[in-house]
Amino acid sequence: MEVRVLIKSQLSSLIDRIIEHVPVVGVKQKEGKYVYAKLDQGKEFCPDFDVTVQSPKEFIFPPRETLFDFTLGKDMQLNPHYSKDTLVIWGVHPYDIKAINILDAIFRDTHQDKHYLMRRENTFIVGIDPLRASEKSFWSSMEADKVDKGFDFILTDLGDEYIITIGTQKGRDMLDKHGVSNLASETQIKARDRVREKQKDLCLSNRKLNFPLKMLPYLLMKGEINKLWKEKAEKCFSCGSCNLVCPTCYCFDVQDEVDITLTRGERYRVWDGCLLENFALVATGENFRGEKYQRYRHRFYRKGLYLKKKYGQFACVGCGRCATACLPDIADPVDIFNTLFNSLKGVLIHG
Amino acid sequence: MANNSIYKPELAELVRIEQLTEYEKLFEIALANGRESLGHLPGQFVEVSVLGVGEAPISVSSSPTRGKNFELVVRKVGNVTKVLHELRTGDQVGIRGPFGTHFPLEEAEGKDLLFVAGGIGLIPLRSFIQYVLDNRHKYGRVIIFYGCKTLPEQLFLDELKKWRRREDVELVETLDNPCRQWKGNVGVITTCFPKVKIDPENTICTVVGPPVMYKFCLIEARAQGIPDDNIYLSLERRMKCGVGKCGHCQINHIYVCQDGPVFKYSDIRGLEEAI
What we know:
Radius of gyration of chain B: 18 Å
Strand content of chain B: 25-35%
Number of strands of chain A: 11
CATH class of the largest domain in chain B: Alpha Beta
Order of helices and strands of chain A: EHEEHEEEHHEEEHHHHHEEHHH
Number of helices of chain B: 6
Largest sheet of chain A: 7 strands, mixed
CATH architecture of the largest domain in chain B: 3-Layer(aba) Sandwich
Number of helices of chain A: 12
Largest interface: A-B, 52 and 44 residues
Oligomer: heterodimer
Largest sheet of chain B: 7 strands, mixed
Distance between the termini of chain B: 37 Å
Order of helices and strands of chain B: EEEEEHEEHEHEEEHEEEHEH
Distance between the termini of chain A: 44 Å
Number of strands of chain B: 15
Strand order of the largest sheet of chain B: 10-9-8-7-11-12-15
Strand order of the largest sheet of chain A: 1-9-8-7-6-2-3
Structural class of chain A: alpha/beta
Strand content of chain A: 15-25%
CATH topology of the largest domain in chain B: Rossmann fold
Helix content of chain B: 10-25%
CATH superfamily of the largest domain in chain B: Nucleotide-binding domain of ferredoxin-NADP reductase (FNR) module
Helix content of chain A: 25-40%
């Protein structure tokens, strides 16, 4: 991978030049927290954020997205919608890039989702290696402290300069176009690698899994009937906040809307959440996951076992947003997985 | 990248509508875009769109052996199906599919077949039964258990009449709440099992009915000695997208819209939340 270098003070003017050509959303400060929002100027970008309230998921998988519009009446016409808008997302931490890689795999799998893929193709991902971790982060345990793909280029802060690791031709073209052409030296690349090696130590010492990650699916397989699920789920509000903030939750509902003329309308998808009470409800009134503990358990199993089986990747990247968002404080995967590990230690050791 | 949207239905026309019971209507559907046929196998389902209202997963009720059009039988129960019931011959609907797995057409060849249909479970099973009757020489005995709550809920009355008359079909009908003129069996569907002597090792048993029925039918089928490998079920879930994306139909790691709706019992035995 080609590696370039940029004097730190030149970063905001680089963003300014890019904004002239393409809309850029980036990390900004808002009420003491960090969010992705449209950047009007490069200097608005906050490079030293710990975590954003929402992941950048909403820009590649919008909360509401038109799938097609239609005309009603004798000669019905259906016109699919595919986004052609180009967007740059500036400042994505490795764990969120990993989450995007997971979404890519899911929507690229058999029955390719062209709506997602078109938008994804037109999105530039500018990564940034983290300088600090949020209180609830545990991305080191999820092996998401660094990434080698999924970005067009990624910035690493070396103090006086940014090392820019190029991930795609698209990324290289953008840098060429805006005059970022200085190649990084061997020394600088080594310094970048040292910085990256230390990233895993940024998460707090109490924010780790007490067992090797590869053991997680096995742990879940053994822990299906465990009092933990019912105990914790008793406090669940079924609000779906954990789904909402999760960078890898992608379940959706599909609905129709007819406009006021009653001659045309659109079919769109909206985010849904498996913790919501009616998620598995069918028209006959049967709710196949009607109990709180079933929905609660399902989400952890999806993250640690089901999607891992299907796509070969864990659907949790350790961003800690669910743990932060959950009011009754029952959504923390570190807590759940470690508690499960402790309760099953005996079983695991003795087979 | 895929050429088309996986969510965009193709247009189809309702060419015949028949009221079967108070709540169920049969729709014969012709695809509009010159596609020869749906290309489905018994047990598969389609996503039916009433544009402006929404989309619902409906199992195909006719066998592919019965011509190029296909039939859906729909209970008026949700938003989409309520409006579907208001449509008339000549109206258009959207169709996506067929999706999912099918009944064991080939595995069942040379074997005896036991169909266990509870209520509207006969709708998808009818596709399989028609297929078997159209290829009658390939299969052994054909035994059908059909249970309803009351007589007016019985579907496909003309076909039932034919099945009753056929010597190569053993039909056992039962009602939970019989009326005066009912001369058949009385009781829930599991009471049909002792009525027929089967050769369990050589019988393929296919069960379709409301969710509550499966547990009891499985107990009964196993008590008869039918091996788990010979038992097939069709499970209902909220199959919103039909293409394994939206997450609604998941049972653990299984996507009912892709890995089902037809399952061999031995493949899902012990799966939490399945039955």
